[in-house]
Amino acid sequence: MATGSSKWWQGPMDFPPQPQPQQMQQHQPLQHQHQPLQLPAVTMPAPAPAVAAPAASPESKQQGQGQGEGQMGAAAGAIVPLRRPRGRPMGSKNKPKPPIIITRDSPDALHSHILEVAPGADVAACVAEYARRRGRGVCVLGASGSVVDVVVRGAASAAPLPGRFELLSMTGTVLPPPAPSEASGLAVMLSAGQGQVLGGCVVGPLVAAGPVTLFAATFANAVYERLPLQD
Fold it and tell me: How confident is the model at residue 30 (pLDDT cuts 50, 70, 90)?
């Protein structure tokens, strides 16, 4: 076989070159890129227990609300109307009134008196004399003591009743002159011995057997009128 002749298997061929093993490794896609990354486990610290905040007092709440409203009003630029305080204003309470002092007594006012009649004196005569000298009417409201020689209207005789009697009551009015004598009069209620009670209008002496105390009221400027009134 001649050496100068070219065989078909010895000539140049157009086949692409075979890749080298190193090139094959370079063009080969990375498989680990598509695999998920495995990170190491991280332990987180446990949360601290929550500490309860102190309860706010009503005053602090009101202050906080007031500050919040003031800040909101100032931020918004609005005019906040002032609330009218409730209740009475200061100094408007009822002030104590000064006491009423009467420096001048009215002549028509009643005056209370306690009159004491000495033993042996006529009680009715003493009251009439007192009214005449004072110029005031005497209204006898009550009496206490003992009397003798009592002459009352309605008795069996006009002679004084014998014995000593205790005064249970005495009422009547004695007016000073120029009032007529029939406008004055006294009535008594007496207690005799053994529980006997008698009384009537005094028409004679009424002698005090011991100290007799009278409870009376005096008046002045009494208007004397006769009834019935004429038209």
Answer: very low
The whole-angstrom separation of Cα 207 and Cα 202 is 11
| Strand residues in the chain grouped as ranges (E) | 111-117, 137-144, 146-150, 161-174, 185-191, 197-201, 207-208, 212-219
d(CA 64, CA 188): 86
Say if residue 4's pLDDT is above 80.
no
Q: For residues 214 and 138, what is the distance between their CA atoms, to the nearest angstrom?
A: 11
Our separate counts of H helices and E strands in the chain read 3, 8
224: tokens are 């004397």
Structure tokens at 19: 């890749």
Per-residue tokens: 185: 């009069």
pLDDT > 90: percent of the chain: 31
The predicted model gives 105-125 an average pLDDT of 90
- Where are the strands (E) in 29-110, listed by range? none
Beta bridge partners of 116: 213
pTM of the model: 0.53
Residue 144: count other Cβ atoms within 10 Å of its Cβ: 14
Contact 123, 208 (CB under 8 A): yes
